[in-house]
Every structure is written in C-alpha cells, then in structure tokens.
User: Fold this.
Amino acid sequence: MSAGSVQSSTNLFRRLAWNSSVPIEVRLADDVAGGAVDKYYIQAPRYTYLPLLLQGVREQLVDVALDDKALADHADDSQWWFEEDAGEGEESNVKFAPQGPCKWHWPIDLIELHSAIARTGRRGAEAEPDAAPSPLKLILHLSAPPADKLAVPPGIESCKTQFVSQVKEADFVRWGNTKRVTGLRRGDLEAGWEGVVGNDFDLHARMASRVVPLPIPLPPSTQQQSTPSGITSRPPSAEPGATSSREPKLESAYAAKSLPIKVYLPDGAPALQFPVPSLGTDGRPTTLLSLLRTHLPLLFPTTSEPYVLAQPLAQGIILPPDAEAAWLAACMAGADGWLRIGIRIVGEA
Amino acid sequence: MSQLEATPAAVPPAAAAALESYKAKDAAKVVVRFKSIGAAPIMKNNVFKVTAGNKFQAVIVFLRGQLGVKAGDSLFTYINGAFAPTPDDTVGNLYKCFGTDGHLIVNYS
Assistant:
C-alpha cells in the first residue's frame, strides 16, 4: 500500500474514532436539595474531558435545579466533582469495585472504559455487540471534592496542561525524545487542544497529523517507486504528503521504538504501561493478542480461542486479536495520542 | 431475549484468581535519581529507593517534603528532562518505560 492510500485510510479511521461518543446521564448528589429537574443527558465525544462539559452541566442542570440560596452556596465550581453512579442490583451487572470519583484529566473514553470493565462481558460479544449501550451514569457533587483521589486540580487550564504532557510523553515513548512536539509551531500545538475544545477534527489534526505516525508498512526500500508523488530520492518517512502546502513528514508507526499504550484492569488493579515494540524480534508487527499474552498471561492463556477469560476494549468496541498494535495506536488512539485498552472479564453464564 | 442473557454472568474463578495476582502491589524497589533544573535547590542526597507500586503522586509529595516546598508553591517534575508524567502513573511503569542505567531520572524545577 502506498503512503498516500495509508494516509487516507488512516484518516478515515481516525475520524471514525473521533466521531464516537458516549451517552452520559448526570444527576445531582442526594445531599443537594434539587427541584423538579434532576437529570441531564449529554451525548459526549469520547475524546473530551469533564471540565469541558461543566459549563453545559451548570446551565442545563444546576442553574435549573437549585433555588437561589443553594445556587449562591454552590456557585464555586472548583468545589464540584463527579462520581460514577455504578448502580446496584443484578440489572447493573457490576462485578467489580466502581471507579468512584472521576478524574478531571481523564478523557470521557477512559471514564467510560472503567465503567465498562467493572462489568463482565458476554462470550462472543465481539461478533454481536450490544445494540443500545446504556448511558454512563454520573453523580454531580457540589462540595467537598476528594482532592487526593482526583489527582489533578479542577479547571480547564490544568486539564490542558495534563493533555499537553500526555502528548509529549507519547512522543517520548515513540521516539525516545519529544522533538516532534517541541518542534511544532505554537499554533499547531495549540490546535491539538483547541480541536478538542471546539469539537473540530481538522483543527486537532493540525497537531495529530504531525505527531502521530501513520501505519505505513515497512520496509521502505521496495516502496519508493510506488509513492504517489513519484519522488524517489527520499524514503517514504521523509516524503511530503499530497493534500496541503505545509504537509507534515510522513513517518511510519512501524518504525517507532515503542507505542504509547496503556492497559487498564478492573477491580482497582494498577494500570499497565510497558514498552511495546512495533515489530517483534522476528520482524513481524506485534499483534494485540501477542501483546496481551506476553503481559497478561493469566487472563490471556494460550488457547485456541483468543478471548476465553477476558476481552480487550478500546473506544467502546472489542478489539480483534490479530489487529496490529502499531495500527491500533495510529488509528484508534485518543486525542492525546495514547491508545487506552481496557480488559473486561468474560462472564460465566 | 433468552433467560440466559438475563442471568448476570459470574466472574469465572480463573479470571478472579488472575485479577488477584495482578492486584498485588509491586513491592520491588526502583532507584529514583532527582536532578534539579535551573535555580531549583540541589539535594545533598538525591538518590532514593521507591516502591514500584507507588503512584508518581507519592514521589511528588516526597520531593516537596525533601525540598521544603510550601503548600502554595509550585514544583514541576519531569522524566528524563522531557515530559511531566501524570500523578496516577506508577513508579514501576515509569521505570519500565523510561528507566536509564538502572535509574528513573526525575528532574525538578
């Protein structure tokens, strides 16, 4: 496949991931004296963050539900915080400890992922996904934020700082330095966050397309003549693209030292982060299943069926076992360039 | 739908045992080397052993204590002088991914 066609197919998948969203139901905590309005529903993009939803929650829920005195008491939204309402009873199917307070610096995707992996999945669910996902239920508290559990202070600015730090860390994971991020024009770096704030894929892509490499197959030596622009003097990794005058360099995700991937487990087990080489020692691309079998052998035993005990989720879907890690990292990463995989236990009927 | 689907699916014992094993806190020690940047004070003893299962947040709190940083004052921390990790990363994960010569280098300013 030529670099040009890889670029267009990658953009298609990046746009699909960008357009995926989570239905959210927000209700006020029981200790808040509310009126008739007690719930607010949002269809939120997976890449966005709670601080960016706060204004809507204030206008549509808090301002409407609270009387003037209560509003005055709770006007300071630096005291507000969200908690997952994991629900009770068999209907909710919650099997593991809920995540509790929702972290300000986690994208909605990661909060939803923790909600999903606290439940068990159906065996074979990859073949027939759930028709209608139930909303992510959040409780809004208006006082006494548990600062130690939230980890990062509230507010959009501190969320943005964490976002940029994560973009840099992902760059460091890929190449062993942060030159691609620190070398960005200021406007392009800002566009990464502004695209998230403004729900603008193309704006965000001004940063992402320069930082997140494309899954261009290696080795490059045989592909030089097949590139669309016909330039043969440069390897594909240095070749300009064809769609704009100031194109980023096209680098291959398969050439990266390692891939920015985090793996989340249920029940409060610590998240995993480890070096994930794009290519194995045999020179073949690392597949998701080989990665899971290497790092989580107890949950992914070597059996003929890949997902016997657990199934990997990202961006709301079960990932196929033979998907290449480099492709997933290039096409299904969050807005900050990290691929977040949740491990959901497969329930016994 | 069928009755089977209405029955909540239990966690299989093998999966529960696997999770218990992964939940065990990593008690291994990581050697953390602190390095000051710019005008930040230099530490007399700048090498410490930190439990791998600890969150990076614990390292920040420890460093603030060592340097005597006041509650309202800022302290910035970087790995390998390149990026700031999130406070909820574990020290063990950071060492696995970014350790150099048996150390995790944490710069501060």
About this structure: Chain B touches chain A at residues 4-5, 7-12, 14-15, 17-19, 21-23, 25-26, 53, 57, 79-80, 82-90, 93-94, 96-98 (CB under 8 Å). Strands of chain B lie at 29-36, 47-51, 77-79, 104-108.
